[in-house]
Amino acid sequence: MLEFITDIIVGLNIVLILSSVFLVLEIFRSVGRDDLYVLAKGWKYLVPAVIIMAVLRVYDFFIEYSIYTSSRVVQESMYLVFTVFLFSGLLVQYLAIKKTLDSRE
Known about the structure:
12% of the residues are buried. The protein is 81% helix and 0% strand. The chain has one domain. It contains three helices and no strands.
């Protein structure tokens, strides 16, 4: 049962992190060169962090998939909380940019 719970949490982490990467790419695609001021200065640091985190999480899953302990469940749950907040923040930013760009048309 512990293995199943850990796999579910890891799977959610991977889906949310990869979704965050694609959401960042969509944000950059939807903002034109003239509207780059809409993005905060921290974005140039956030994008590499998201990419690095995605690579580390996928790599970690395939390397340590056979280690199932209660501490691993706690660790994966903490990653899940991080990725939920990350994805939520990116989604809010994306929706705000879309609303701003739609109101200009």
